[in-house]
What does this fold into?
Amino acid sequence: MFREARLSNGLEIVAECNDDVHSSAVGFFVRTGARDETDEVAGVSHFLEHMMFKGTPTRSAADVNREFDELGAHYNAFTSEENTVYYAAVLPEYLGRAVALLGDILRPSLRQADFDTEKQVILEEIKMYEDQPPYGAYEKVKAAYFGKHPLGRSVLGSLESVGALSAEQMRTYFDGRYSPGNITLVASGRIGFDALVDTAQQACGHWKAVPAARTVAPATPHPGFGCVEKPSAAQEYALQLAAAPAAGDADRYAAKLLTVILGDDSGSRLYWELTDPGRAEHVSLSHYDYMGAGLFMTYLACDPQAAADNLARIEKIYREIEADGPTDDELEKAKRKVNSRVVLGSEKPRSRLFSVGMNWVQRGEYRTVKEDLDAVARLSCADLVDVLKRYPLTRNCTLAVGPLPRLG
Amino acid sequence: MKQSIFSHRYDNGLVLVAEAINSLESAAFTFLTPAGCAFDPPGRAGLASLTCDLALRGSGELDNRQFIEMLDNLGVERSEGVSDSHTSYSGAMLAGDLPQALGLYANLLRRARLPAEEFEACRQVILAELQSIEDDPHAKTMIELRRRHLPPPWGRSSHGRREDVLAATRDDVRGQYARLYRPNGCILGVAGRIEWEPLRDQVGKLLADWQPVPEVALVEGQTGPRVDHVPYEGHQTHIGIAYNSVPYRDPKYFQAWGAVGALSGGMSSRYFTEVREKRGLCYTVYASYNTLRDRGTVVSYAGTSADRAQETLDVMLGELRRLAEGIESHEIDRLKARIKSSLIMQQESSAARSSAIARDWYHLGRVRPLDEVSRLVDELSCESINAYLSENPPGNFTVLTLGPEPLKVAR
It folds into this structure.
């Protein structure tokens, strides 16, 4: 059962209540991320996410960690281009305390000493990703694809931007973005909704509202091809971005089915062409939907000597489906896979939380599992062909990184 | 919590263990076949992985493509993997499709075609996986650590060695399949929306006449160097530390588990607090407990800038030595809360339960009910953990670093 409420300061509360499960999941979804930053504060959203766990006027960082652990909570947070999410999965009896704790940490002290220590952790995180495939290629290809559009910004920021960031800049950013009207409290699983609203009122009712609008400018794709040499890498990696349906676009379901038909990790066209014969260690196609823009992302990891040939094979597969569309058999198989995945995911409140939350913050709507499945069931091959006409996979921006100075 | 757990041993040694969870719409299975990489013959490291992959490429009436398409048509979310002791094949799906999926996997276990025309592709897949590990310093650190800490044939990399994979033949795979894909030692775990009797009968029809094969004995060799360094280019140095613990089936397992939990369970744990929160030395630091049938191992990891790696290692070793001095009651209270919620949340995943009950059977010869786990966790006390720690203090560490420069290890 779906319930919703709104506090007088604008904080929205939405919940999918299901008494057939054992646990509860809850999260604060804040509509802020890399796209809301400027060059001067690049990486501040993600750094701020870390600082939220560093304490409040009434709790030290150690108190916060200890109290989450005392609840037996499975808790974490993440930052993307457009959202920062703080969440916990708990047994139902601890739901109230989890909400109170999450609510409290969302008004952090941002103490200078904590800021300085945590900056070291963030810099380590950036270095870790620089040492890991695809060696920053995701940030680079996104920047190349989006140009100056805010979705081209890096979530982590750089060693330079984070190194130069001050606590004062972070406080200013926080004041402008963490307004209650820009935050949604989402819950799923065993939820007593009225008690949830009462707890939220106590924890968050005093938050002051400020304007925190986001301008969503249209994104213009920049197709292209680039190659970055990374001599120490064993494999060559390639990332390919192409335009795709955005968050508000009903065609996103068709886009999702296309990724299953073409790029699923088992039984897809890319699987049979590249993975099954051992031509590539990994190949996949995914769909990401943002406000006002969407992306198809192809990811390839393979032996450097095979990279150019593999990219040519991928292009051939994309040309073929753009020309002929998927077969009825492929469409049915993809629907069965999605059906099974959605049902398996829906059994866990901690995975349902993100479906419910993202639907609400991206589109302002609630959809049941059945509504999602029905939307997928209605799709025809013609719908998928239509998406490919408007969003051709062959018009893309590609970046390769690995030991080769150039490809092909 | 009320649980419905069933088990049956067929005459050929195969064990079926199942848990009916009727609040779920899904069902999942896990086959644990006794074909772990510890059984890879000399000069053929990687044979278990080759066999696992080739066995998926067609069985019975179905060729490679038909087999995968049948699974896809059923919407089976499949996974497979090779560990020291087992090759596992798992799948999760809508409950109504379980019988058909079990039929497909029974064929894989008994009538895999191991097709000659697929063997080169299969080899390429394993070689690609081996190459990908070279780009994953964290995974490589843990592989190199285990390889040195455990006596062979334990602690090997399941991916094997490049030269061995290159030398392997399809006949090697056929031999491995004939020896190790057998009912004796094989455990099938099933969980989710199921009915026990029809399940037991169906599995009987599929697998009860599968012929047993004599077991293979293993001979243990010598462990590797206690302190070692692997040169690796990058910003960070990666630190792995291993020490011995008791196995899962040991009566003191929960004490051992509790001690590791104090070190690394949650963000208030000692590692996280001392290494990351107080000193900001790294992004990732953890310890985890691993078990084979007759021995446990605790492994720790941290990845940090090369210039701060020495301090990170020193702090970690300091925490391991301090652990021997005992833990405090508030630490164990938090661990109890975490394990209880984990146990209950596991009931929301048929895949997690099918795997957990199969592994329970392997280690204990039975499924430990959640009520019993809950009671044993409740009974855990600071005193019992500290008594365990004073008898079994963390020590005799294997330390493996991977990065630009080796570190000093204070003994």
